[in-house]
Amino acid sequence: MASVLMPHTLRCFLSLRVMGAPPRKLTSERSGFAPIRSQNFRFPVPSAPLTFEDPQAFREKSLWELVRALGVFRLCSFPLSCLLHGTVLGKRGFSMVLRETEPEIDKSLRKMSSLGLRPMLAVPIEEDLGESTGEQRYDDNLASMLECVRMSHSNSWSKDPMMQLKITALVSPELCVKLTSLMKEQKYDLNFFVKAMDKEVVTFPGLSESENAHFLRGLCRLNQIGQASINKVRVLVDAEYTYMNTALSVITMAMMKKFNQEDAWIWNTYQCYLKESRDLLLNAIRLSVDESFCLGIKLVRGAYMDKERKLAGKEGRDDPIHQSWAQTNESYNGSLEIMLNLISQNPDRYKIIVATHNEESVRRTITQMDELQISRDGGLVCFGQLLGMCDHVSLTLAQQGFSVYKSVPYGSVDDTLPYLARRAQENRAVLQGIRKERDLLRRELWRRLQGKFSGSK
Ligand SMILES: Cc1cc2nc3c(=O)[nH]c(=O)nc-3n(C[C@H](O)[C@H](O)[C@H](O)COP(=O)(O)OP(=O)(O)OC[C@H]3O[C@@H](n4cnc5c(N)ncnc54)[C@H](O)[C@@H]3O)c2cc1C
């Protein structure tokens, strides 16, 4: 029987020196990414800070699209619970962002691509504790995800494609929770996960026979995703709740060890609202050095704050979330700086997507990219926002030549509505901040109407 436990905890990695070496000038060739438009490849030039105040960010949108976007904002002013129960929007209400057939999806995504934005498909399947479904459902989920990999790289809008993956769509959340508590005691050796992905029969200590069998099947499913996406699509694994994140991260690291030898195809997510997020990031960097794999990072603030806090309170644990938004911002900025410095020193090994709607974080990233001479569209540093959120930020960035991805839920309306409802609830803070986008849309609409009456453009 192969033992997968080692006598160290995950936390004992040494801290890394990630700053200090002189920045190196980067080009798209060195990054391994093809530029979006080679003739337009942009080298970094120190730029005036972006203000995201220009309504002409929406200049490529048609009049109808402006009116429709304002209509959506109007609907968003209704209480969230009405929207979620369908009393306002109904099933087709979200049809502005969802399409069910491939030609429909293709058309929407081509439009997005013509605006300079890249779609990042997210299969809207996830499970939390108590929602576990059977093995067949996980196999069906695998089929949907493999389809998503295919869609992501085989269309005219596919440029350096990325997609999101939730491990709890392929492995039961109960098992992830159990693995997380086992991993708190001892460190798991990634090689055993890799062997299991290669269909070797591995026995994971602490699991029952049926749990072990389910885990082996889950790892084989993840292996299929890795095999289908390597050299084609970057797979960004989502971070979820702290009670299962350790397992999700270790599984993701094992995928990185297997698939990221030459380039970062599998990425992990770091939630900066967590007090432990800096340690987790440094551990991952350390592991990528020790195990020789490339590291791709999705940096987020985190989406599950209310539930995490409620649960910690109920269980009498310390709150895992930073006490204030300011502390979360500090944590985000610090991790961002670590990654940008690391990228400037090792452009072949590290990549990041700055997944935020926060204008200050975006500006800070751009300033540091300029200082470190990291190219705008080389694919080492890109930006991510959710579909339908902060388009004024995404469009301005795209117009300035940065790589910008919009996270697009891709699936049937039935699967996608509950997913959107969860995202809407989790992103209340961002939804409350969309007033600026609405005002910019109004100003652009007004400018167009004035132009129509005065005969100018
Ligand atoms: C492409 C993409 C992928 C994503 N993937 C994931 C993922 O895998 N996992 C995940 O959890 N989230 C994910 N998110 C969601 C992301 O975490 C939310 O969009 C984000 O929390 C909102 O933060 P912001 O930086 O956009 O905006 P801001 O408005 O700057 O920040 C709001 C966030 O700050 C934090 N915060 C607010 N108040 C406080 C407080 N009092 N104390 C401490 N912290 C506070 C919370 O995280 C809150 O959501 C993803 C987002 C995008 C765009």
From TrEMBL:
Keywords: FAD, Flavoprotein, Oxidoreductase, Proline metabolism. It catalyses: L-proline + a quinone = (S)-1-pyrroline-5-carboxylate + a quinol + H(+); trans-4-hydroxy-L-proline + a quinone = (3R,5S)-1-pyrroline-3-hydroxy-5-carboxylate + a quinol + H(+). GO terms for cellular component: mitochondrion. Residues 108-434 form the Proline dehydrogenase domain. Its cofactor is FAD. Its EC number is 1.5.5.2. GO terms for molecular function: FAD binding; proline dehydrogenase activity. GO terms for biological process: L-proline catabolic process to L-glutamate. PANTHER family: HYDROXYPROLINE DEHYDROGENASE, PROLINE OXIDASE. Converts proline to delta-1-pyrroline-5-carboxylate. Belongs to the proline oxidase family. This is Proline dehydrogenase.
